[in-house]
Amino acid sequence: xxxxxxxxAVSLSTSMALALPVLAAGxxxxxxxxxxxxxxxxxxxxxxxxEADALKAKPDLKNGRDVYEVCSACHMPEGWGLTDGTFPQLxxxxxxxxxxxxxxxxxxxxxxxxMYPFALPSQIGGPQAIADVAAYIQSLKMNPKxxxxxxxxxxxxxxxxKENCVRCHGEHGEGDNDKFFPRLEGQxxxxxxxxxxxxxxxxxxxxxxxxxxxxxxxTDRDTKAVLDYVxxxxxxxxxxxxxxxxxxxxx
Length: 251
What we know:
- The protein is an all-alpha fold.
- It is about 45% helix and about 0% strand.
- Helix 8 packs across helix 12.
- The chain is globular and about 45 Å long.
């Protein structure tokens, strides 16, 4: 993609970010979890299409940096998003998780009207570009000061996390690259709350159906407590950036 095209996308993305939510509501409560507007009979992590092609590609970090220039308008040059949860922290996220989410957005299996126009092949390239930017994002150091909850119910949050979430997301919220389970540690609290609610309601249609079932009995108190706890789990030191770090790739 030409430099001029990238800069235009960044400018337009910034203006759209002020007017639109990160994700739109799903197509309606009557749509069953696992179905999709993009593909009839969508199955979670089926692993075909662009996802499969991107996973086979050998990442090019230099091109990944160029592609990420488009993303940086919303997710910030450091990949830290915003603490109010408008945009998630991407830095340090697993390579395969990023590939899956980008492929699902492009296939319209996950609703994201803000991101969708700038994730298209005409803007950033094909499956190779997805692999490239996923590798670049994974290489970024994480935000040492994510957005947090009120900290009033952390004992309950820890209990709920250990009883319900560890099997997939790990003891420390580290996720699992090979199983496409996202890293949760250090993610902004407000972003976690919104995504959790949309998963529970079926609005995030590419969510793992096991998680959808798992959280149906959680109360509002449970939700706030467990996600506040998760947002406070510190990533390993080698994954964290210093406070105030600026990405030198975008000076």
